[in-house]
Design brief:
Shape: globular
Strand order of the largest sheet: 2-1-3-4-8-7
Order of helices and strands: HHHEHHEHEHEEEHEHEHHH
CATH superfamily: Thiamin diphosphate (ThDP)-binding fold, Pyr/PP domains
CATH architecture: 3-Layer(aba) Sandwich
Number of strands: 8
Number of domains: 1
CATH class: Alpha Beta
Radius of gyration: 21 Å
Distance between the termini: 64 Å
Structural class: alpha/beta
Number of helices: 12
Strand content: 5-15%
Amino acid sequence: MAKTESGASARARARTPNGRESRLDGYDRAQLHVLLREMLVGRRFEEKTAEAYAIGKIGGFCHLYIGQEAVAIGAISALRAEDYVITAYREHVQALAKGITPRAVMAELYGRADGCSHGRGGSMHLYSAEHNFLGGWGIVGGQIPLATGVGWAIKYRGQDRVCICFMGEAAVNQGAFHESLNMAALWKLPVVFIVENNWFGMGTAWDRASALLDIAKKGGSYEMPSAVADGMDVLEMRAVVGDAVNRARADGTPTLIEAKCYRYMGHSMSDPVSGVYRTKEEVESHKTRDPIRAFIEQLREAGLLTEDELQPMDEAVRAEVDDAVAFAEASPEPSPDTLYDHVYVDTNVNGRLFFDARGRGPAAG
């Protein structure tokens, strides 16, 4: 008979970091400061978003990323500009990390015409073809088969690109997750599937919703390489994702990565910070591993960051975010005349696949 664990011991095991420590070897001071600044941009942007939402400047659903910055920044820093990112609806920081400006993201949250989705998407549906950011998607797991399709398009075109697909842990028990990973492994599609395991799907603890707690083990069902990363450590995220990206570029092999992390805010702005499903003490205990604070201390101890460097960096970030708010408030609302814009994509009347890059008509071949 297989040995089993109690719910309490299973949760304790699942929430124990993997113990690996990131190393600073191979990074120069400037590279490390870039990573720190990007995490600060994400944190200050989300703090300002919370303020704007609280006074009614931002409406609709809004899901903050505070506490998980190391996952997005570390992972996306391992990509090239031409690579793709697709994710779920907690995606403000991913969009910023992919190069969309704070102005364009904040204007979108305000529902303004200068937003990256022209005011049509709001918080959950950021998009930028220019930056190969293929959106936040509101349906749980809905982005996963789309990422597999992007991987297939990359392979079909013979491109040297990779797609990262972010998702929450609640998505991995959806049927689309299993179908997508099976196809990606079978066809060797260059997709890196990153599961941000922050322990709660809305208000349901992971160990109450899944028979298998170790998400990385699911990769074995498809003969897919998998890894576990400390999602509170930006350098470990960069290293683990970097290995997966290199593997995808080499021969198209996909990878499943479980990033163990924790969100400090509620599921959405309508959810109290601790809610009824976790205690304030639990949230505060996880804040002792704040990814930004931990990285700052790591750099200080290594003599790679001084207060004279940190303070002006943070001040500049705050000013950039304040500027984004001012830009959003000054941006016009979308004109009613544009109501039907961006509803349908231009399609090829001859029925050819859009990535064939061939024009319409018989003469196009």
